[in-house]
Amino acid sequence: MTKPQPASLFSTQDFSTRAFISWRGLVLGLVGVFSLMLAYRFYQQVFGWSAGLDATAPAFDTYWMNLLKAELVILTASWAGLWSWLWVTRDRNMVALAPREEIRRYVNLIFFIFVYAFAVYFTGSFFAEQDASWHQTVVRDTSFTPSHIVLFYGTMPLFVLFGVGSLLYAMTRLPKFAERLSLPFMLAVGGPFLILPNLGYNEWGHAFWLMEEYFSAPLHWGFVVLGWSVLALGGLLVQIMQHVLDAIRRAEIEATAQHISAA
To answer: Does residue 15 have a pLDDT over 90?
Structure first.
């Protein structure tokens, strides 16, 4: 009688790569973020100089304050909608989670975080650098400038949407993250999130202190420290890979047991 050989996790159709990876969510997220960033930049190019130089002009209210109001309504609703959905649809019996499904969820989490990092990249590079250039050139006459309305009230709330969303996804669907808080995860999401309250301090400082628009100015140190905390994603990736390898080992044992019992 031939001794049954151990089954590999990916040796059967049930454990094929397709069972773990769905590219649709990642592609939609990346295309959506890129399209929105491109639309923001195009809007600034068209209406920044023509309607964004005088905050007291009627055109400024038409093209920029209305954009600000729309952002506040849409992004706040997006926060409430996505985060509430993640909580309501949470896994209430993670103890019974099969290793195969756990691996699939880790892949989804990696994709979720990738979209978050993509949004942070656009915010911290193109639009943050543009903000200093705009204010050095035009000189601000209000806290609501064409640069601020896109950066502070558009792109930053957008990456917060995905950052907190990814954390909620992990805590409500993956046992390892539900059992205890991940320090790298909290740093990678909490640091950029705290940039939002830091905006109030920044605008207060610019209103009372005549400061140059340099990122090295002490008033901007909070942005630098909190922004660089996103580098904790490297440590988070190590954690995720450790958990994935553990799930793969358990799935291999499960598949081998099924193969032997079938033989």
So the answer is: no
The yes-or-no verdict on residue 256 having pLDDT over 90 is no
Tell me the chain's radius of gyration from C-alpha atoms.
23
Q: Is residue 14 part of a domain?
A: no
Q: Which domain covers residue 65, as residue numbers?
A: 32-257
Q: What share of the chain is helix, strand, coil (3-state, %, to 5)?
A: 80, 0, 20
End-to-end CA distance of the chain: 11
Q: How many domains does the chain have?
A: 1
Work out the average pLDDT over 158-174: 96
14, with CB counted inside 10 A (0-12, 13-18, 19+), is exposed
- Determine phi and psi for 93, rounding to 5 degrees: -140, 60
pLDDT tier at 12, thresholds 50, 70, 90 = very low
User: Which of 126, 145, 152 is closest to 47 using CA atoms?
Assistant: 145
